Amino acid sequence: FEAGSAVAVLQRHLGDEPPSLRARRADVPEAVDRLVRSMLAKDPAARPTAADAGHLLAAVAQGPDGAATVVLP
Fold first, then answer.
1. For 61, which of 19, 55, 68, 69 is 20 to 30 Å away at the CA?
2. In this structure, what are the phi and psi dihedrals at residue 31, rounded to the nearest 5 degrees?
3. HEC profile for 25-62?
4. Tell me: the pLDDT tens digits for 53-72?
């Protein structure tokens, strides 16, 4: 987050949703963008467990056809 002061940055961290990864890097898979956004949810109860996040990342890394792919460097 960017803002004019440290306090303003803190307020944005507390209240604003983080920007989409795909807004900065179009090559980020949609599933990774969704996962990161869910992991950054303001409500901790809405975040995936580590096991769920691992399973989702493994599925993304495997790719839709079952072949291993490189997700991000």
1. 19
2. -65, -35
3. CCCCCHHHHHHHHHHCCCCHHHCCCHHHHHHHHHHHHH
4. 998 888 887 766 555 555 54
Q: Half-sphere exposure of 44 toward its Cβ, with a 13 Å CA cutoff?
A: 0
Q: Is the pTM higher than 0.70? A: no
Residue with tokens 């303001």: 42
Residues in the chain: 73
Token digits of residue 2: 């960017």
Q: Which amino acid is at 38?
A: S
